[in-house]
Amino acid sequence: MTVHGGDPVSVVRNLAAKAWRRTVAAPRRGVRLARRAARLREQAAAARVEWRLEREIARVARGRGPIVVGPWLSEVGFEVLYWIPFLRWFQDRYRVDPERIIAISRGGVAEWYGDIASRYVEIFDHLSSEEFGRRNRARHQHQESGGQKQTTSGELDAHLIAVAHRVAGIAHSAVCHPSLMYRLFNRFWLGNRALDLVLSRTRHVRMRVPPTEMNLPERYIAAKFYTGGALPDMPASRDALRALVRSAAARLPVVMLDTGLAIDEHEDYLFRDIPNVISLRDRLEPRSNLGVQTRVIAGAQGYMGTCGSLAWIAPILGVDTLAVYSEEQFLVSHVFFAAQAYRQFDAARFDTLDLRAATELDLLALPLPPVSTSSH
Question: Are residues 120 and 188 in the same domain?
């Protein structure tokens, strides 16, 4: 027996299958909607955090009183790649007169803040490098769970801000602390926010410094290789770096910016036994070491070093740079940002080299910092 519209058994089966598909699909749609709602809630929460931080930053800029920026206690690389450009944005965005700003940092880097702050307080004028290293390591453990960032302000910060007040002859000030920048940019570094978050809140410009007064060769390559997350201390890395330095030294003298200072957990690789390599270890002191290294880099025909630290400032000084790494896990967002930021002005070339790949392909005799034919 048949019924209009088809076999009744088939009809029932089709209707049952359709109902089953709807029943199964409903939870899936519910899951998708729930996930979408969760993402929207997360984005809204992040937007509120960013809004509150910008309100806090705006409050710092209010009025006409002095503003302490710092103290900077974190990595050198973050200072030149993010902090100083962030301060330049802060100054421009809120029309802050440089006469109001007092910068606190270490290593003789007043020139880094030259267009931002009218006054600079050198940490090593008030703390020995040993005491600074000890107190900063304690800060890492107690405030940052072992990390170097400055997501909060603690006892060492308060001490140095009080020092700045005393040096400047003021009783109090507003404080633009690095934690504001770290908290604002953190989602970008974690890969949860677009590049524009950071790019729109930084201003990069070419840095010009006086020539070094050291008696160095007329033409040379500056270099600084140190251990860390990007370049762990391993025998294979040491051998590969020696091959790279030896190849460079066959073309031009290589001035190694090894300091021997126990300020952080990084340790310099040493290559003084390679011919045509010059070490500055015996000519640097804590209170001026970064300033001197900056001038040495500015006078070089090229720079090569661990990806991080001074590798970020060399292109800003107009010096072609080769940044070397063997572990890229913590570098991706920084290299991506640097490439975009350097396009904003007349920065020099910035190239990276994966040391592991170069070793495996036996290319270590090839990649070297481009040697400029012009003088700086």
Answer: yes
Low pLDDT (below 70) residues in the chain? 1-6, 8-9, 11-12, 15-16, 19-21, 23-26, 28-31, 33-34, 37-43, 45-46, 260-267, 360-376
- Tell me the residue range of the domain where 264 lies: 221-360
Lay out the sheet containing 321-325: strands in order across.
277-279, 254-256, 221-224, 302-306, 321-325, 350-354
Assign 224 to helix, strand or coil: strand
- DSSP string computed for 288-352: GHHHHHHHHHHTSSEEEEESSGGGTHHHHTT--EEEEES--TTTHHHHHHHHHHHTTTT---EEE
Partners of residue 254 on adjacent β-strands = 221, 277
Which residues, in sequence order, are CB contacts of 147 under 8 Å at separation 6+? 140
Whether residue 179 is found in the same domain as residue 239: no
Number of H helices, E strands in the chain: 12, 10
Q: pTM (2 decimals)? A: 0.84
Q: What residues pair up with 306 in beta bridges, in sequence order?
A: 324
- CB contact at 8 A, 255 and 216: yes
Domain endpoint, select from 144, 165, 199: 199
